[in-house]
């Protein structure tokens, strides 16, 4: 064997540092509760269905950030599955039940976030409710909006007094459950604070057992993974111990050695695992390459069917009301985070043969909604998806179990043809990675898709909704045609004159925060118990309200429009705003928007002088004393450099009238005569339409 030369080593080093250089290693944002589990609190945890999760809280779970980053690279938000070289796989409700021991069936974890007194029946102001449940209020230094520092809960409720009364035990149980939910299941990037959204749940400890904590935890994990696919995201929150334990149980070649003994819940098997903390970028390269080299036999489709697992499983998670939902194609709900349980794409994980999947459900609209931008009652706002969960038993699909589960030959042929299976460059492999149909896959034959309830797609229609508003491309074309009609009535206008229809664009500004209902800005908790709450700013959307302040105007629009007959609007109806052709134009929304703009334009204070060609308009404009003198510049001269700005519809900006103009000199003889530029008419207020920006100002983010 020929030895490697220095040049070969240098080329391999350059390949590692440049070709396979990872874009990022996501950092895990987690917080340990670090509160002892007292014997008198355990009955409340068992009633709530959170006792097995509390047992995981005794140890700190370290996560391999490089390994998780490699899996996030293969996560697809469209299907909520990992795209591997051998097919698709994902975390299901079955994994949540085995790994964390959480109940699956129950009421969805939903409601509202902060405005309990306004959106809930028998609701109370947040801080009033907080003092009733915990007996006191945290100091102002430990409060930020609707969150409380972890340190205050840890210092105040860590040790239960030995002579505590039953009511004191209930207070400490509420604090423990609040910390448990905020740190183990539903941790967010605000890792050092606890949100008050759990107050309605803690008000009745006896009813905590009727909620589906498993589906809520899976919905939140799906949402965190979908966020992690954004290349600009560098931090990852959520139940990461569930993700890592799922990887170790499903991929034997990736699990650490020396962890053969386990107990229930199964995630406790890795409670003493400590990953390496050096060269995270290089370990990401190794993990990425290891995933590319995986074959179908390297993935364990049914890791929970062994006898050893059956010996430690608690029977309550195998109850029929929970187990039958493992194969339900339904919604997953955690307040504003809505996911979709697409187990029909991973049937081998339930002992079946994977068929050609149906098109994935498009829920891009749900990915854009995550709670920020105004509190609301989510069961009503997401009524359709809550109804899917209510009908969850109808969405359970039947899985025909086989001895050798896995993808069919038809599926593998389709997957190798359409999927992006490998992320590493080809030079990282010794073989050309051909499409190989294993003998086992050929013996499985084909499989038919099980029948399921049809669900309609919910794409992100924000762009479509904006197209229905005035000021978009459709209505701009109508404005151009309307301006051409007006141009025919202008004295001295030439038919071939070019008209500049470019419209200035300005991003909508967010209005200041509204005061609370007592007329004062929102503050933290008070010792008097007044329930103040945070009122976020209004949503910024592109509508007619954004046209109240034009960038610049020419004269008074109602005066300029005086020479045009109102019947000129009769041919300019538009289907974009839903106007019926037979309706009177003056009663249409299109005409009313124009009338509002005309009234608003009467308040303009700029009165620039008009050229002689438009003396009939200048006579109607009273001279204003607040208009400054003109600059010494000839606006009829063309731009001399590409950096000079152009003047859009609406006339000359007011900044051009700030000094006394100098007398323009006569044009030189060698200069070509130039036509005097006529300011285009804008009597309809159409120059205001450019203030709409094609942004996503109605996006609602998470309330962390």
TrEMBL record:
<feature type="domain" description="Aminotransferase-like plant mobile">
    <location>
        <begin position="49"/>
        <end position="415"/>
    </location>
</feature>
<protein>
    <recommendedName>
        <fullName>Aminotransferase-like plant mobile domain-containing protein</fullName>
    </recommendedName>
</protein>
<dbReference type="GO" id="GO:0010073">
    <property type="term" value="P:meristem maintenance"/>
</dbReference>
<dbReference type="InterPro" id="IPR044824">
    <property type="entry name" value="MAIN-like"/>
</dbReference>
<dbReference type="InterPro" id="IPR019557">
    <property type="entry name" value="AminoTfrase-like_pln_mobile"/>
</dbReference>
<feature type="compositionally biased region" description="Low complexity">
    <location>
        <begin position="653"/>
        <end position="668"/>
    </location>
</feature>
<feature type="region of interest" description="Disordered">
    <location>
        <begin position="652"/>
        <end position="704"/>
    </location>
</feature>
<dbReference type="Pfam" id="PF10536">
    <property type="entry name" value="PMD"/>
</dbReference>
<feature type="compositionally biased region" description="Acidic residues">
    <location>
        <begin position="692"/>
        <end position="704"/>
    </location>
</feature>
<feature type="compositionally biased region" description="Basic and acidic residues">
    <location>
        <begin position="519"/>
        <end position="537"/>
    </location>
</feature>
<feature type="compositionally biased region" description="Basic residues">
    <location>
        <begin position="504"/>
        <end position="517"/>
    </location>
</feature>
<feature type="region of interest" description="Disordered">
    <location>
        <begin position="490"/>
        <end position="538"/>
    </location>
</feature>
